[in-house]
């Protein structure tokens, strides 16, 4: 696919992400990612990233939208696949008759912006996960076990342990992960085959919205300026992206091993 497909609309969409990130993807990573022999790892890790994003959002819903004694009422990720299109207001889970003491689980949920945004994100990430699996199946790429990169773990190591600082930090990290994903989809798209190029371009809108949603939620939970923490995690993220990395993954740093 020609780079012209990243038209003015997407250039406008990517501009704030480029401003948000403290560095662009190093050319060495892009050069490695373009190699045909790296495609299987790229697709498997992409699938893993989509599932991990859904799981992380699910964890936030459980921890911050339900009282501790009611968390067991919220089911696993399969539940979100069965939800109808999201309503505009907070009655996200009310259509499902998951009973606990004869009350729907939604009756126990706080009707807040975190719930609405995270459920939407979970649904989209699970859909993307299924799309990647379909592409892998068509190309006979096995969904093998793949070790995680140091990327997310490296940033989560800096999360503060008290609230609301902990959730603010996790939300800021979520913003950086989504922003980096969006940036890399855009970087890769012009160099991939037609199907993958179109697929990666199709993901740009949702990933860009996810990063904005995470930042908005972080600001809401903080109740004060988060500029200092955003800058701090931006520095951590850029350091991980620019440092030599022995593993090649979707969010890895500069490849140190060919």
From TrEMBL:
Set out the biological process GO terms recorded for this chain's protein. Answer: tRNA modification
GO MF assignments: tRNA 2-(methylsulfanyl)-N(6)-isopentenyladenosine(37) hydroxylase activity
Looking at the record's lineage, which domain of life comes first? Bacteria
Q: Which Pfam families match?
A: MiaE (PF06175)
Note the Gene3D superfamilies from the entry: 1.20.1260.10
UniProt-recorded name of the protein: tRNA-(Ms[2]io[6]A)-hydroxylase
Provenance organism: Oceanimonas baumannii
């Amino acid at each position: 696919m020609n780079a012209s497909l990243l038209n003015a609309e997407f250039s406008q969409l990517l501009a704030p992400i480029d401003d948000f990130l403290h560095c662009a993807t190093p050319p060495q990573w892009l050069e490695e990612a373009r190699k045909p022999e790296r495609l299987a790892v790229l697709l498997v890790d992409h699938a893993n990233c989509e599932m991990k994003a859904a799981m992380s959002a699910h964890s936030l819903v459980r921890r911050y939208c339900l009282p501790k004694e009611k968390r067991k009422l919220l089911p696993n990720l399969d539940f979100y696949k069965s939800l109808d299109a999201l309503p505009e207001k907070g009655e996200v889970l009310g259509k499902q008759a998951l009973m606990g003491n004869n009350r729907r689980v939604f009756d126990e949920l706080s009707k807040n912006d975190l719930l609405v945004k995270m459920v939407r994100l979970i649904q989209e990430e699970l859909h993307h996960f299924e799309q990647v699996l379909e592409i892998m199946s068509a190309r006979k790429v096995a969904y093998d076990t793949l070790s995680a990169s140091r990327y997310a773990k490296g940033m989560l190591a800096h999360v503060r342990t008290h609230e609301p600082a902990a959730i603010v930090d996790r939300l800021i990290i979520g913003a950086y992960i989504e922003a980096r994903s969006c940036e890399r989809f855009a970087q890769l798209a012009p160099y991939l085959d037609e199907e993958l190029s179109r697929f990666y371009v199709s993901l740009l809108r949702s990933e860009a919205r996810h990063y904005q949603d995470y930042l908005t939620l972080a600001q809401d939970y903080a109740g004060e300026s988060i500029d200092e923490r955003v800058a701090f995690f931006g520095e951590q993220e850029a350091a991980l992206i620019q440092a030599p990395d022995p593993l090649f993954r979707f969010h890895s740093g500069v490849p140190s091993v060919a």
